[in-house]
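Quick start: read one record
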Amino acid sequence: MDEFLQTTLNDPFVRKIAAAVIGMIVINLIVRFFQGLISSRVESRDMRYGIRRGLTFFGYLAAILLIIGIFSNQLSSISVALGVAGVGIAFALQEVIVSIAGWIALSLGQFYTIGDRVQLGGIKGDVIDISILRTTIMEMGEWVKGDQYNGRIVRIANSFVFKEPVYNYSADFPFVWDEITIPIKYGSDHNLARQIISRVASDSVGEYVENARNQWAVMTRKYAVENAVVEPMVFLTANDNWMEFTLRYVVDFGKRRGTKDLLFTQILDAIAQTDGKVSMASATIHLVEAPTLDIRLRKE
């Protein structure tokens, strides 16, 4: 047994394997040390994340160069074995290979980046991490209404970018168009109602207009897209039950629900101050009393 162990330890190939393992452990410890140092010293979230991902990449690169340097003499014989096994490995790990290709596409193609709000295959949320194989998303929706976190973290294979559409809410244009509808009772002053809605929209979301206009100008120079109206607009539709006003406006992609709450609150407060000139409508069901039935039986 001692002779076998001594023979094994004296084998140059075994020594190279041991050196490669020890070298990768040392590289991993160095990368983790600097990542911990960066986490405690850098306050900017984006810069901290970028440096950590860069250290991880250089750690992988250093490990690959270390292995190539150690086994440089055996590369010719190893390449033959890898060539034989390559077809089987490629078939067994095709999802992994496509995920790595997806990571490269994400790095070069600007599909999305950390902090973007995306929708991938029906899963909506904010991107919190992009690794070589998976994208990690803090999910929104499901049992929670509105664009708010539900607490679930979802990891999606990067191969997804080649299979399904990628919806990005915040990449080149960090605003979205949103709408609310306000039903107004027939007989109300519709001109006054329009003035109220327009004024509230200008006060509540007018701050986004200038920035959105500048961002959209960049979009028109970058893409073949026509100019768009970013100012709040009010549309009126008359249906069988009430007058329906629709307010269309641009809003920061992360503030949709809070903005809706602010708009509805201020519109309701303004309508309440019109002394009945403008009234909100609601579905009304009118029950008609059934006529009295007079039933008489004749005795034969």
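The longest strand covers residues 175-184.
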